[in-house]
Amino acid sequence: QVQLVESGGGLVQPGGSLRLSCAASGLTFSSYSMSWYRQAPGKERDLVAAITSDGSNTNYADSVKGRFTISRDNAKNTVYLQMNSLKPEDTAVYYCKAANIYRSIYWGQGTQVLVSS
What we know:
0% helix; globular
C-alpha cells in the first residue's frame, strides 16, 4: 500500500532551520506532484509549497517565500522541505501530500514543528 512518512520535525529556536523529509513507497513517485501543507492548532490545513512531478516547477505560500525551499529526489522517492529563518508562526504539524493526474491523493501522518525560544 502507499505510504508517505515524514521526518525531521522538532523544536527549534526562532531564526533556526529544519529540513523535513517525506519518503514515499507503494507508488510511482515520479508520476506524482508533491506538496507540503501545515496545520496549526485550531486552524485549517494550508498549502506551504508544491513541486511538479519532474521537479521543474515549484510554488510557495507568500508567508514562506524566500525562507523555505521544496525539492525532490525521484531516485530516492523523497521530497524535502528546507525551512530557514523559522518564526514562531511556522509552528504547526507539517504534512506531505502526493497527487497525480488521475486525482489519486495520499497524505502522510504529519511531523510536528515547534518554533520557540
